[in-house]
């Protein structure tokens, strides 16, 4: 992956809808004159469509074999794009694993025209670097390798003076693109962008140039970023478990014999030559697809794609021989050690995605675990027989995997959890489940599909799935019909076929990994990034004019219908014009800061039945109706929600209201829940993300007593009474609250339904005053650190700023846009100090609260001093880069001009605005000021609110790897124990 975003599962988001007609329909477009795009002017384009396709997609194939998938869905003047290559880590050479992933990084580095000042001079140096890496790769003597690497570092510094770092990203930012990224997985490499619709031609031209002319520049610093990514994976127990599972399930196929990120040995010995060979072999038009969904015109778009991509030459399609795995004859048992909480996983090898059995396994996955009424949901999670358990299938091209995982309760062994998981599989194999559950799974799959297809990202991703797995669009569209026709006998037969003693069993235990590895830090001299230099390509690109788009801001008075329910309850309503789904919320301004027992009561509800239904029956009833409920509590609010099919709104509402009014106390459920809470608390202390991002952050903001660690003690938990929590549940609708609704109903009908179904007393109680934790003034620099067994060290720099005021929001948005690029360029591209790093000025969620400056960097522990110095230098003396500043301005305006807050987002945007004392869309201020703001204003903001502000520096890492003398340079060093952080 390019940045720290995990997109590995993106291509698995298989969303299916029902279709009755299985035939393709081939049509021809009607030629329309398209200004400057029709090349050649009279060319006609044939395309495939499928009847009853919910995406109304057109699938084109250019003369050179490039596939183009298009869907017109105009939720905003934007287009979600994916460029997919049918090649991933399984296509890596066995002696150069990680190559596909590293090539993905290189595709962002520019071309012979983009990202370079003097290509001819740069090429001479790049050729030297390539030859040196081949020599380095072939050399075994460590002393000789160090000398060669020193040469690589030296020549790289020269080459960088001719390059312009990050120029592709600058362009995308300036035109208002979002989500610029990529991901590599076993079968695919996919490049993502969400672009404004008025930038379509410029984007198509840019991408055609990028994929036709890849230059692997700024190589060794990017390689170090990949090293850091590898270190992050070595610090992830979950990734280690997954790697062991794949290795054992696929001892012959590349799914198991090599990982996407590659081995340490291969990362240490990269080959630019091999990367170029891979690029030439697989990055060819007949092995690629462009998938787009959004505000587009079919005829214009295909003509533009053909204009710029049509000249790419078709090449022989690369062949791939699928390694045939032998059956697993008996359970394979493995153990993984690491600092995280214990769990156990059972994994099976399954057929490839195009096999019908793979669809049946997807059904089995949902029958076992769907978050509501699956066997694992009801028999294990609902009954609290384990702390948590789940099941999921992972379809891939050649094979798939199916996995069940469980976390033990206090005193429970991993073997006991294993047995419980296997028992649920046995129920499936024996057919010991209600046949009606099959239809409920099908119905909920339709609902999930409707939800998913409200988003252009999911729509375009469906195309990627079809292309990567060579699944004809007709087959993809008609999978729901096949899914709906799966019988109970199919399920039993497939379960017995694939699920026997042929599994891999992995015990994830808490402990120090004796085989822990680390990619050693190489000696790297920071390279020039030439922030204020622009290539001729960049200048010409940015000089092209496009028709600007006008922003659309929310008008809360027009976009939200306000009404009143009985007892004067406010109703805020936005109409769903797209489908038959609804979202209903009751919102109370009272939270766990007022009463910590409220959180316990809210969680208790899911384990309770009523006077008419058991807890298990309730979950089945909701699932059968295609609805789900949730009650969520935060420090200052309670959200009660009901979502699902509007046709079942009355039934779902009545059922949900009966749960709130008639929850039945259950002592065993409470005892089990308390035990589960205590175990979950213990597990949280083993999670580095929770320790740093939540526990340490709250400590820095509020001190030893803070919202995070103000929880009921074990003694208080064990003293709770079932009726006490039920009374709290029943009291929720008795407080003053408001109702939010997004759905297809008309106001009059909605009001009548809610007045009839929403049970409230004659007089609502006022909510108590909010309990506010005072925010600390950070008076002197302090370094807080927590000990954690890990390869990397992670740190956050936290500074308290002024209370929220809308007047500074425009400059805040510009500052964040500008500094985001500066931090990435400097710490990652130039100095190779981190894979993931960021800095932003975060505004408060309530007007009386403080804003905070938060910066993060995760790096090898031996880079700690350089990383801290690098971040501090940027925060202290913000560099002036005129090109970056102009880009930030353009990015801000182009982004806002194409943003559209729609659907239920309108209601929640209004909720956020009210907390800040706003009665209008604050983006108006940002847009109006973006172009007129100067760098002097930005500098003034930085001097006043960023530079020299007292910091709390939070560090998590292994005690034996941290450099405490270096930490002392930044303030008084204090270790925080887990007891201090968590309060227990």
So, CATH architecture of the domain at 782-982?
A: 2-Layer Sandwich
Strand runs, count: 25
Strand order of the largest sheet: 3-4-8-5-7-6
Q: What is the terminal separation in angstroms?
A: 38 Å
Report the sheet-strand fraction: 15-25%
Largest sheet descriptor: 6 strands, mixed
Average of per-residue pLDDT values:
92
Q: Number of helix segments?
A: 36
Unreliable segments of 5+ consecutive residues? 1-40
What is the CATH third-level topology name of the domain at 782-982?
Answer: Cytochrome Bc1 Complex, Chain A, domain 1
Question: What does the model show?
Answer:
Helix 1 (99-106) packs across helix 10 (272-282), helix 4 crosses helix 31 (882-898) and helix 5 runs parallel beside helix 11. With 984 residues, the protein is α+β, with helices and mostly antiparallel strands. The chain is built from 36 helices and 25 strands.
Keywords:
Metalloenz_LuxS/M16; Cytochrome Bc1 Complex, Chain A, domain 1; six-stranded mixed β-sheet; Peptidase_M16_C; Peptidase_M16; metalloendopeptidase activity; Peptidase M16; alpha+beta
Give the helix/strand layout.
Elements: E1 25-28, E2 46-49, E3 58-61, E4 67-72, E5 78-85, H1 99-106, H2 119-138, H3 142-161, H4 167-174, E6 178-184, E7 189-196, H5 200-212, H6 219-234, H7 237-249, H8 254-257, H9 264-268, H10 272-282, E8 288-294, H11 298-309, E9 332-338, E10 343-351, H12 356-368, H13 375-382, E11 388-395, E12 399-407, H14 414-430, H15 436-452, H16 456-468, H17 473-484, H18 488-498, E13 504-510, H19 536-543, H20 556-559, E14 561-565, E15 569-575, E16 581-588, H21 597-604, H22 615-625, E17 627-633, E18 638-645, H23 649-662, H24 667-684, H25 688-702, H26 714-718, H27 722-731, E19 738-743, H28 747-757, E20 782-787, E21 792-803, H29 809-830, E22 836-842, E23 850-860, H30 864-876, H31 882-898, H32 904-915, H33 923-930, H34 935-945, E24 952-957, H35 964-967, E25 972-975, H36 978-982
Parallel strand pairs: 4-8, 9-13, 15-19, 20-24, 20-25
Antiparallel strand pairs: 1-2, 3-4, 5-7, 5-8, 6-7, 10-12, 10-13, 11-12, 14-15, 16-18, 16-19, 17-18, 21-23, 21-24, 22-23
Helix pairs in contact: 1-10, 2-3, 4-31, 5-11, 12-18, 13-14, 14-18, 15-22, 21-27, 29-30, 29-31, 29-33, 29-34, 31-33
